[in-house]
Amino acid sequence: MKKLSEFKIGETGVIYKVDGEPRIRRRLFDMGVTPGTEVYLRKKAPFGDPIEINIRGYELTLRLAEAEYVQMEVK
Predict the structure, then answer these.
(1) CB 52 within 8 A of CB 40
(2) Hey, which of 7, 20, 29, 65 would disulfide with 69, CB 3.0 to 4.6 Å?
(3) What is the model's pLDDT at position 19?
């Protein structure tokens, strides 16, 4: 188990849990970041923030602060 923000480029995992205050959780859920979904870390910006992931067949860009709330099971 590790946070999505700790992933390295090319790592894949399944979302285990989404933490955070209700407003942030709702925002992540609305973007498709839900438990049981497979995630692939595609890119990181030069200083590591933001990150780009593949999820549910599309590319999504998240800030590291948002990725901190996503607990992952590494594949």
Answers:
(1) no
(2) 20
(3) 95
66: tokens are: 């948002």
| Closest to 3 in 3D by CA, of 74, 58, 61, 75 | 74
Domain total of the chain:
1
- Residue 55 sits in a domain whose CATH number is 2.30.30.90
Query: For residue 35, what are its two tokens?
Result: 């438990």
**Quick one: tokens of 75?**
């594949």
> Which pTM does this prediction carry?
0.92
Tell me the two tokens of residue 6.
Answer: 């700790």
State the residue range of the domain holding 12. 2-74
Average pLDDT, the chain: 96
Q: What are the structure tokens assigned to 39, written together?
A: 């995630």
Q: What is the DSSP letter of 4?
A: G
Mean pLDDT of 24-45: 97
